[in-house]
Amino acid sequence: MLRVTKLRYGFPIGLLLFFYLDGILGAAFPRQLFSAPYAMSSYLVVLWLVLSVFFEDELQIPLTVWAAIAGGFFDVYYTGIWGIFVFVFPIVVALTRACYKAFPINFLSGLLVYFIDITVICTLSYFGNLVVHMTSASFADMLVDSLAPTLAYNLAAYVILYFPVQWLFNRLRN
């Protein structure tokens, strides 16, 4: 159970902040993020959820529920329809928790787990869009034109934000 700490209120505020940062960065740098044929997707919401798994310690944040809510808002706000992220974000949280048990939590193992998470998100999103005929790109095109730039962008965000978010969680936990 999540005790009455600053984290009880800080976690949703951070999730909301990262949610809007995704949109703000996409709107501020459209030419850099979406120049044809390449397209980078910002998943700072996922970064917040993944780092929450790492830093929650003995506090039990209901991350699966928060991930589903964030995925639903992500779908509706950024695409205008209910989509795949309402299911993918909780899957990523479950995958991160499974990896958390297998790897020691430190900067480099977290980078590896986040790499896996972003790859899973992009792949599941691609196949979901393929099923509903929202894309006609080949899997190879998705790997080169979407997954590679998305990984580069999100891993750079991880490197920049890991220690500030760790510091924030430590401050909110105490």
Automatic annotation (TrEMBL):
Residue ranges annotated as transmembrane are 12-29, 36-55, 75-95, 107-127, 147-169
**Major subcellular location class:** membrane
Q: Name one GO biological process term.
A: regulation of cell shape
Q: How does it sit in the membrane?
A: Multi-pass membrane protein
Superkingdom classification of source: Bacteria
**Signal peptide limits:** none
User: Which keywords does this Swiss-Prot/TrEMBL entry list?
Assistant: Cell membrane, Cell shape, Membrane, Transmembrane, Transmembrane helix
Q: InterPro entries given for it?
A: Cell_shape_determining_MreD
Q: Where is it localised? A: Cell membrane
Please name one Pfam family that this protein belongs to: MreD
Provide the Gene Ontology terms for cellular component. plasma membrane
> Any keyword Cell inner membrane?
no
Read off the NCBIfam families from this record: shape_MreD
The family this protein is said to belong to: Belongs to the MreD family.
Q: What is this protein called?
A: Rod shape-determining protein MreD
Native organism is Secundilactobacillus silagei JCM 19001
